[in-house]
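stage 2 :: seqdesign
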């Protein structure tokens, strides 16, 4: 492969695509597609109870940390900020990171680089690279498919097999709920760790699996529990965290690594909390006690549909599994696909109801979407079922089908999707309430557990439940009467239970903080009704910069 003539002396800018994001514009921003995880695809129908937060662009942070060239990361710029960065600093290489929906922004950013910094080499990476014919849509010099750290190291003439250094990443930013911004306390938010990219399960629709090699393949940054433990200890010390958001598509699938991590955690007395993604078959490789001792407190699990035949769900009663996890204090985020091949207008309501009956703490719904690069996309293309006039900005699974479904129209796909979100909210209540229920069960079950690491973790969690969350329960109980009286009664019962466990503090906070939260919740409801949206702030971070000449 060709290397850059300046090798590690090349000055590099790595940028994510420009905002604002939560608006409709000609570059592909969509109001339905904000730069938010929960409000975009999980709690979007939950009004002021929706969990709002931003996440940094970890791919470019990982690349920056693992090269020795002088490098700036520009995250969530405006077009103006991107232009300013290009003109105030000279860059030999401009790297742009994007996913498929943002191809229109990449096109514009390439145009801007050619105009404002004509000597720069343009490198585009991330999922956008999977679009067939992307080289004719954007004016870039290199379009990188798959893992980017090794590519960039090769391009700079560096050792692509050198160990991976992990950047310090605070997982969520500017978290808000019920109209309140949570305080930005050091260590108050989980740290993100990224043990691998890709997933060997190779589900036909899965874009992350396909992008990093497909079935049977993935790229491991940290092979062993020992390596992972070392990285986590470092991050714990620097960021003062106990809690980790483990960004690995199927963390529990790698049992040897996870069990070694547990062994080391026990030896060192680490009372860590892990939020993980895992498929049902992988979770079933563990006993509940192993999961609890490993600190697993939140699991993102694909429910898809029991009739779809995905191997990860084979032989698993996922509803029973969800119940069990929650009884052990593990919050479950379910993910259901709307518009699978076997769905029809006659059976889809029943399928959505069945998904909702899992009673997960959070529930993501996504349209079945053939995304470029996946086996599903290939199959649909071969069958001539892809709709040709759909803007890539609308291919994200939260709007309408981008293919001809055998039984469901494009318009109806959106109606069913929106209904699924609403129905889950109406029947199961705000996710914050559901989480509180799971936390209480965990505390009740494990408060006297012999392992002090486990007790300490549940004690940490329950502190929030016995104070601020109980005030939130008081508000949710009041406000939810308008939506569903029986859920409001269930919230009331839970609040009483919390107050029985913590008679003084829980009542005191409900009485003192409750009215303030009620006021901020109603104010937020009004703001949302007026169309208010949230945007992430811009970040500029420089590394090896001083040594640059
Ligand atoms: C965190 C995250 C987000 C964050 C925002 C991140 C950000 N700042 O942009 C939030 C929650 C806001 C978000 C939103 C959305 N997301 Co998102 N998100 C993720 C998630 C979970 C992790 C991304 C990550 O950091 N991975 C780890 C890093 C290391 O991997 P990476 O980013 O792929 O980077 C590697 C390579 O791609 C490459 N690379 C990346 N950039 C560059 C740049 C250069 C120059 C080079 C050389 C290489 C390179 O090198 C990196 C290291 O190997 C992924 C799923 C996943 N597991 O990756 C989905 C994912 C990226 N999101 C996805 C989607 C569809 C969305 C949404 C449209 C929501 C939705 N409806 O699903 C919105 C779009 C918002 C918007 N307006 O742009 C899809 C992308 C699909 C596709 N093929 O384009 C993914 C893959 C999820 C999925 N499986 O469907 N997302
Ligand atoms: S198990 Fe999940 S991450 Fe793995 S391929 Fe299937 S959908 Fe993708």
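stage 2 :: out
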């Amino acid at each position: 492969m060709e290397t850059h003539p300046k090798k590690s002396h090349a000055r590099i800018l790595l940028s994510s695509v420009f905002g604002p994001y939560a608006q409709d514009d000609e570059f592909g921003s969509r109001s339905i597609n904000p730069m938010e995880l929960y409000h975009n695809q999980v709690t979007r129908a939950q009004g002021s109870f929706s969990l709002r937060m931003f996440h940094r662009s970890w791919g470019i942070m990982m690349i920056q940390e693992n090269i020795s060239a002088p490098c700036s990361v520009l995250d969530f710029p405006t077009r103006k900020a991107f232009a300013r960065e290009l003109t105030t600093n000279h860059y030999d290489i401009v790297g742009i990171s994007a996913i498929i929906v943002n191809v229109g922004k990449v096109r514009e950013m390439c145009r801007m680089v050619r105009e404002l910094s004509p000597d720069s080499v343009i490198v585009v990476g991330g999922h956008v690279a999977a679009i067939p014919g992307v080289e004719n849509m954007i004016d870039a010099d290199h379009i990188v498919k798959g893992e980017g750290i090794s590519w960039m190291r090769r391009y700079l003439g560096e050792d692509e097999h050198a160990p991976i250094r992990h950047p310090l990443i605070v997982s969520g930013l500017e978290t808000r709920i019920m109209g309140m911004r949570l305080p930005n306390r050091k260590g108050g938010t989980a740290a993100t760790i990224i043990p691998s990219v890709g997933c060997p399960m190779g589900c036909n629709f899965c874009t992350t699996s396909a992008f990093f090699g497909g079935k049977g393949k993935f790229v491991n940054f940290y092979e062993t529990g020992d390596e992972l433990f070392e990285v986590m200890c470092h991050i714990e010390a620097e960021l003062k965290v106990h809690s980790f958001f483990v960004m690995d598509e199927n963390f529990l699938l790698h049992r040897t690594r996870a069990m070694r991590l547990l062994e080391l955690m026990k030896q060192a007395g680490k009372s860590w909390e892990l939020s993980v993604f895992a498929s049902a078959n992988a979770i079933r490789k563990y006993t509940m006690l192993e999961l609890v001792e490993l600190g697993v407190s939140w699991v993102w699990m694909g429910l898809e549909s029991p009739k779809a035949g995905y191997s990860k769900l084979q032989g698993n009663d996922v509803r029973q599994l969800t119940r069990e996890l929650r009884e052990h204090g593990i919050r479950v985020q379910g993910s259901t696909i709307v518009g699978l091949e076997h769905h029809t207008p006659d059976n889809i309501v029943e399928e959505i109801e069945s998904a909702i009956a899992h009673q997960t703490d959070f529930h993501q719904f996504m349209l079945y979407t053939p995304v470029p690069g996946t086996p599903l996309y290939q199959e649909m293309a071969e069958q001539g079922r892809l709709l040709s006039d759909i803007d890539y900005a609308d291919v994200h699974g939260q709007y309408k089908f981008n293919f001809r479904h055998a039984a469901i129209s494009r318009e109806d796909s959106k109606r069913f999707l929106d209904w699924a979100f609403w129905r889950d909210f109406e029947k199961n209540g705000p996710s914050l309430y559901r989480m509180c229920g799971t936390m209480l069960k965990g505390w009740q079950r494990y408060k006297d557990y012999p392992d002090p690491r486990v007790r300490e973790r549940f004690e940490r969690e329950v502190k929030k439940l016995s104070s601020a969350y109980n005030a939130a329960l008081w508000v949710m109980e009041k406000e939810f009467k308008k939506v569903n009286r029986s859920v409001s009664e269930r919230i009331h019962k839970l609040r009483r239970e919390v107050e029985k466990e913590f008679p003084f503090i829980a009542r005191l906070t409900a009485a003192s903080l409750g009215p303030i939260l009620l006021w901020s919740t109603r104010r937020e409801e009004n703001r949302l009704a007026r169309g208010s949206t949230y945007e992430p702030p811009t970040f500029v971070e420089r590394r090896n910069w001083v040594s640059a000449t």
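stage 3 :: structure notes
- The radius of gyration is 23 Å.
- Residues 14 and 95 are 5 Å apart (CA to CA).
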